[in-house]
């Protein structure tokens, strides 16, 4: 899978485990960008909006988990992906 290979190559630790929180965050960010571009073309696609909201919630929970477990990887992911950190943390 080419998409997964590019995500794994971006991971600084080189961990090939797809269950690893950092790789899940990378993959969900990729899916968020795809859904966002889809919703720009189809603004009334409410099913995709709900899917995007669920995906953002899952990514937020994964970021909170990573924040608690390993702050160094959390900060590297935020910097590399260019996403905002969690509020109040």
Automatic annotation (TrEMBL):
Q: Which family does it belong to?
A: Belongs to the universal ribosomal protein uS15 family.
Which CDD domains does the entry mention? Ribosomal_S15p_S13e
**What GO terms in the biological process aspect are recorded for it?**
translation
Q: Name the Pfam families on file.
A: Ribosomal_S15
Give the InterPro entries listed for this entry. Ribosomal_uS15 (IPR000589), Ribosomal_uS15_bac-type (IPR005290), uS15_NS1_RNA-bd_sf (IPR009068)
Q: Which UniProt keywords apply?
A: Chloroplast, Plastid, Ribonucleoprotein, Ribosomal protein
Q: Which GO terms describe its cellular component?
A: chloroplast; ribonucleoprotein complex; ribosome
Query: Which PROSITE patterns does the annotation name?
Result: RIBOSOMAL_S15 (PS00362)
Assembly with partners or alone? Part of the 30S ribosomal subunit.
Q: Which PANTHER family match?
A: RIBOSOMAL PROTEIN S15, BACTERIAL AND ORGANELLAR, SMALL RIBOSOMAL SUBUNIT PROTEIN US15M
Q: What superkingdom does the record give? A: Eukaryota
Q: Which GO terms describe its molecular function?
A: structural constituent of ribosome
Query: What is the official name of this protein in its record?
Result: Small ribosomal subunit protein uS15c
* HAMAP family the UniProt entry points to: Ribosomal_uS15_B
Enumerate the subcellular locations listed in this protein's record, separating them with semicolons. Answer: Plastid, Chloroplast
Classification lineage: Eukaryota, Viridiplantae, Streptophyta, Embryophyta, Tracheophyta
